[in-house]
Design brief:
With 426 residues, the chain is α/β, with parallel strands linked by helices. The chain has 17 helices and 12 strands. The protein has helices spanning 5-11, 37-44, 59-72, 83-92, 109-121, 135-140, 164-173, 186-189, 235-238, 249-252, 254-271, 277-287, 290-309, 328-334, 350-359, 390-395, 412-424, and strands at 76-80, 100-104, 125-129, 146-152, 178-181, 199-203, 217-221, 314-318, 342-347, 365-366, 376-378, 402-406. Helix 8 (186-189) links the parallel strand 5 (178-181) and strand 6 (199-203). Bound molecules: pyridoxal-5'-phosphate (PLP).
C-alpha cells in the first residue's frame, strides 16, 4: 500500500515483523556470516542478493535509503557518506574521461569545485549555463559527448529555482538524464521526478537529518530513463562489466535497478564513500519529522523575508516564495507548498556592514551549515565560496555582500527580535 509523504516519513522502508524492533536497528557490523564459500561467491557475482560487507551494503543504510526512495517516488536508492559523494557518484556513474556534462551555474560551491576542478582533472568537461539562459543558449551548451545535465531544485546559496521544464526538455532531446540535487526543497516541497528529472541527489546533512547530527548523502533513481534507447552514450550500463563477470547492468537489473546497482557495485566498491550505520540511524530519526519541520521552516522563512524586505538597513532580500522575487513564478509552479527555510539578503554598506550585523546576532549562530532546526547564518564569500573569484561568484549568483540566513524552527518572534537587534548595530 502506498502512503502519503507524512506517513512515509515514519513508516516507509522498514516494516518490522512479529516481535522485531519498531525502530530501524543499527546493524553495527562490518561483515555478515555465511556457511559456505559458495553461498558467498554468489553474492560477489551479483547472482544472489544479501549482505556481506558494509562498504557495499548494510541493512540499516538500506532501510533508510528505501524510505528516501519512497519519499521521492523512485525505483532504487542508496546512501553515501556525504552529499559531495552523492553528487560525485551520480555524475561519475554515467560520465567518464572524455565525456562532457552540462551544469547549471547556480549550484552549491562544493559541487561547483567538484565539477570545475576535481572532475575536470579526471578528464570530464563541464559547461556551466546560467539558470535563466534561453533554450537556445542551453542548446548550444551540448556536445556529442554530453552525458548528463545537472541542476539544483533550489540553489544553495543563490536560491534560484530550477526551470525543470526547460532543463529536462533539453536533456531528453539530447538523450541524456537530468540529475537534480533536491537538498533544499526536500521531497516534502518538491518531487523532481514529477517534473522530468531522472536522478535525484541529496545532502542528507541538511533538512533530511535536520538536527545537524550527521553528514550524509543519497542518490535516488526514477527508473524511467531508458539507457538502451541511447545505448551508445551509456556503455557502462548497456555493455558487459568485465569487473563483474560480464554483467550488463541494464539487462540484469532492468531500468529500475541498473543505475543504483552499478553505482553500488563499482563506485562504492572502489571509492568506499559509504554511509555509517549509526549515521543512517540518526538520519532516519530526522526523517521521521521532516513533514512537520519543513512547513515550519517555510512559514518562519517567509516571515523573516517579509520583515527584512521592510527594514531600512536591508539593501535587498531574496526568497523564492516572496512575491516579487525573480524566482517567485517558478517557485509557485514547482514549490507551491513552500520552498525552503533559507533567505539571502544584503545589508546596506556591503561586506563590512554584513560582518557587523553577523557579530550582533545572539540567537542565530555563525556556522558553516544551513538547513537545520536551529537558525544559523553564513557569509558565503568568506566561507563556502571563498575559492571563487568575483566573476565566478557573480555567475553562481553570490554577491560579496550576500548573507545566507538559515531560518530554523524556533519561535518566529525570537528570530525577529534577534534580527532587529543585530540590524540596529549596523
Ligand atoms: C551541503 C550541500 C551539498 C554537499 O553536501 P555534504 O553533505 O556537505 O557533503 C551538496 N549540495 C547541496 C545543495 C548542499 O546544500
Amino acid at each position: 500500500m502506498s502512503h502519503n509523504p507524512g506517513t512515509q516519513c515514519l513508516h516507509a522502508g522498514y516494516r518490522p515483523a512479529n516481535g522485531e524492533p519498531r525502530n530501524i536497528p543499527i546493524i553495527q557490523s562490518t561483515t555478515f556470516r555465511y556457511e559456505t564459500s559458495e553461498a558467498m561467491g554468489k553474492l560477489f557475482d551479483l547472482e544472489a542478493s544479501g549482505y556481506f560487507y558494509t562498504r557495499l551494503q548494510n541493512p540499516t543504510s538500506d532501510s533508510v535509503a528505501a524510505k528516501i526512495c519512497a519519499l521521492e517516488g523512485g525505483s532504487a536508492a542508496m546512501l553515501t557518506s556525504s552529499g559531495q559523494a552523492a553528487n560525485f557518484f551520480a555524475v561519475f556513474n554515467i560520465a567518464s574521461c572524455g565525456d562532457h556534462v552540462v551544469a547549471c551555474s547556480a549550484i552549491y560551491g562544493g559541487t561547483y569545485n567538484l565539477f570545475a576542478v576535481t572532475m575536470k582533472r579526471m578528464g570530464i568537461d563541464f559547461t556551466f549555463v546560467e539558470p535563466d539562459c534561453t533554450p537556445e543558449e542551453l542548446e548550444a551548451a551540448f556536445r556529442p559527448n554530453t552525458k548528463a545535465v545537472f541542476g539544483e531544485t533550489i540553489s544553495n546559496p543563490s536560491l534560484a529555482v530550477l526551470d525543470f521544464e526547460k532543463f529536462s526538455k533539453a536533456a531528453h532531446a539530447h538523450g541524456v538524464p537530468l540529475i537534480v540535487d533536491n537538498t533544499f526543497a526536500t521531497p516534502i516541497n518538491c518531487r523532481p521526478f514529477e517534473h522530468g528529472a531522472d536522478i535525484v541527489t541529496h545532502s542528507t546533512t541538511k533538512y533530511m537529518d535536520g538536527h545537524a547530527n550527521q553528514v550524509g548523502g543519497a542518490i535516488v533513481d526514477s527508473g524511467k530513463f531508458d539507457w538502451f534507447a541511447h545505448a551508445d552514450k551509456f556503455p557502462g550500463l548497456t555493455t558487459p562489466d568485465g569487473s563483474y563477470h560480464g554483467i550488463t547492468y541494464a539487462e540484469k537489473f532492468g531500468l529500475e535497478g541498473a543505475y543504483i546497482t552499478k553505482a553500488t557495485a563499482q563506485l562504492m566498491r572502489d571509492f568506499g564513500a559509504c554511509s555509517a550505520p549509526m549515521n543512517a540511524y540518526l538520519l532516519n530519526v530526522g526523517l521521521e519529522t521532516l513533514h512537520l519541520r519543513m512547513p515550519r521552516h517555510c512559514e518562519n522563512a517567509l516571515a523573516v523575508a517579509q520583515f527584512l524586505q521592510n527594514h531600512e538597513k536591508v539593501a535587498w532580500v531574496r526568497y523564492p516564495s516572496l512575491p516579487g522575487d525573480p524566482y517567485y513564478e517558478l517557485a509557485q509552479k514547482y514549490l507551491p507548498n513552500g520552498s525552503c527555510g533559507v533567505v539571502s539578503f544584503g545589508v546596506k554598506g556591503g561586506r563590512k556592514a554584513a560582518e557587523t550585523f553577523m557579530a550582533g546576532l545572539e540567537l542565530a549562530s555563525i556556522a558553516t551549515h544551513v538547513a537545520d532546526a536551529k537558525t544559523c547564518v553564513l557569509h558565503p564569500a568568506s566561507a563556502t565560496h571563498r575559492q571563487m573569484n568575483d566573476q565566478e561568484l557573480m555567475a553562481a549568483g553570490v554577491s560579496p555582500d550576500l548573507v545566507r540566513f538559515s531560518v530554523g524552527i524556533e519561535d518566529i518572534h525570537d528570530i525577529q527580535a534577534d534580527l532587529e537587534k543585530a540590524l540596529e548595530r549596523v
